[in-house]
Amino acid sequence: MPKVDKPKVLVVNDDANSLFALTSLLAQWSDQEGYDVIAARSGEEGLRQVLMHDFAVILLDVNMPGMDGFETAEAIHQRARSADIPIIFVTAFVADELDRLKAYQRGAVDFLFTPIIPQILHAKISVFVALAVKNEELKRQARQLSLRTTELTAANTKLTREIEERQVAERQNHAKDEFLAMLGHELRNPLSAISSAASLIALPGVAPDAVARAKHIIQRQSRHLGRIVDDLLDLSRAMSGKILLNRAPLDLAALLASCLETYRTTGRTAGYAVTLEAGPGWVQGDATRLEQIFCNLMDNALKYTPPGGSITVCCEQDDGEVLLSVEDSGVGIPGNLLPYVFDVFVQGSSTLDRAQGGLGIGLALVRRLAELHGGSVAAYSAGSGEGSIFTIRLPRGERPPEPRQEIMDTTETAKPTVLLIEDNDDGREMMSMMLSCYGYEVRHAADGLQGLELAATFHPDLALVDIGLPGIDGYEVARRLRASDETRGMKLIALTGYGLAEDQRRVLEAGFDLHLVKPVDIDNLMKAIGSCVASPGKPAAPATPPASNAPART
Known about the structure:
5-stranded mixed beta sheet, alpha/beta, 5-stranded parallel beta sheet, elongated, 15 helices
């Protein structure tokens, strides 16, 4: 235990004999009562002792030259730290009522008259020493209680935080369980439709219009599956910061108009009153990702707005920002859900979502992509049945001095010969058939070594190479083709299921001209081939693909 200082008694008296007598008398009881005695010959010396020590009680002579007892007492009690020290005045005169009043006003608690009776002095000093010990013990207990309170407060704060973290973890686990259930539902539905449509086509005697409808179903559901996989991969990349933006100046209003025209052409907005209110809004952004942001907001509006409802798309400038808003007249957002609509896996009621479909990650992806552009997203709804408004804020960019050049149209030029290297039998067969239908002469190989042999004998103008090949991978195929004088000038397009920025860098470093992520839309593939053969005969050099040829999901 820490050492506890003894209480101290201060005796102030200008008479040496009286001072010696008092201190000697007090010293007789100091060991028994547990205190120390300190002496002072004047009021000034007594004040210096008070500045250095705390005292249980002060015996103060009234009649002293210079600073008398009353003045000394007043000075002692003017100091905050010593204001509560009890003072016993010692005097040889019987004090009248006025003297007593003056003494008490200066802080006296008692009087002793000389000659002093030892028993009375002992009794008075014992009381004040005992009080000092008790006060010090109370202070120590108060400090311990304060320390314990601080510890308990910290423990309670930690416990509260742990409870909150556990509740968050439980909600997240529950959300993940629901998400996995939704994922199974969302995957099984299109797979079931594709399987049924394929079985229908294989049946004998099926009417041509039924076969056409079945093919349309297969195409639509395949695109739906592709979007599910893309959303999952995009969200994972966005959350881990692995999405690389291909920034360029673009007019957000023009992008919105183009996207809405696609929605109208495909009939997705049929039955809705869709309005576009857009002025020029130039931003420095990735066209593919900004289109993805808008499409997710638009899909969300269509999903939760019954047919016959209205959707208004706005683009306007606000100080140094460009605002994109999508307002619908749909089912709205309940107040308890509104703060969480941009969290991962959050949706509305399960009954509604199961009727409408979806994984509940679209808005989370919108927020992350907006943040990657240096912007923000907010949602507003007056409540259930009152519709909703989603607003994106992006930093305003400068309009470029010249319009961007479009890719040369090569549809009327001679078709290049194509080598397809793909290990998946079904994928290789279907892509070969599609390319042949578009007028391309195609040879194909199932692995890298066979592909190199065909390239040496066939001398194609262009090769479509899968990266994940058996034997030697697509990177090594590209390096060997570039190392040979006979195939060095061949155009190379990588086909891969990997779309991270690191994958794109490795593809281009290996010698490919373009990097496309599976599944590749046939229109995008035709544009990519066209861009590669726009200047035939020149050796290929690794370069970043044009923005219009960038894969829909990278």
